[in-house]
Amino acid sequence: MNDYEEKAKEIIEKVFFMNIASMTEKGLPWNTPVYFSYDDRFNFYWYSPYESQHSANINNNPEVFLTIYLPGTGGVYIKAKAQEIEDRSEAERILKIFKRGDTDVNTDPKNYFDKSPLRIYKAVPYETYVATPQTATKYEGLWVDKRIKIRLTKFSV
Questions:
Q1: Strands 63-70 and 17-23
Q2: SS3 label, residue 128
């Protein structure tokens, strides 16, 4: 594992909110911040109302772009495919890892199915980049960041 991968993991561990960029049916960009969690394979999870614009976008086009940014440290940029979780046993597994920090998350699966307006979503990355102060270059007194392609690997046990 290289330093860039370590930096990306550090950012993901410290940040609790990510932005999801999706596309409307008309091809317009839509960006939404959400509280998130992740598993040891760096699949990302969040919950949202199924009637929200970004949820509708994901149902029409699963391609999303995630950004996780920690000021002064850098950002992680992720191309992923997203989907709504429809399997209750998978939802139970996800909800066990969902609570991070002091955030109050209801981990009862019944709150994400049937008549509930909330659903759980998953994004599976297929391309990941990191930009940190170490990857930036200076041009005529201005800092210009550079995204470095990385491969996030499973956490060691």
A1: antiparallel
A2: strand
Quick one: which H or E segment has residue 11? Answer: helix 3-14
Look at strands 137-139 and 17-23 and give their pairing.
Answer: unpaired
Q: What angle do CA 134, 13, 3 make, to 5 degrees?
A: 30
Lookup: tokens for 129 = 């980049």
Q: What is the pLDDT of residues 90-114, one digit of tens each?
A: 999 999 888 776 667 788 889 999 9
* Domains of the chain with bracketed CATH: 3-150 (2.30.110.10)
Instruction: Report pTM.
Output: 0.90
Q: Which residues have C-beta within 8 Å of that of residue 47, sequence separation ≥ 6?
A: 34, 105, 112, 118, 119, 120, 121
Cα 101 vs. chain centroid, distance in angstroms? 16
Q: What is the pLDDT of residues 37-52, one digit of tens each?
A: 999 999 999 999 999 9
Pairing of strands 29-35, 37-38: unpaired
Euclidean distance between CA atoms 106 and 83, whole angstroms = 20
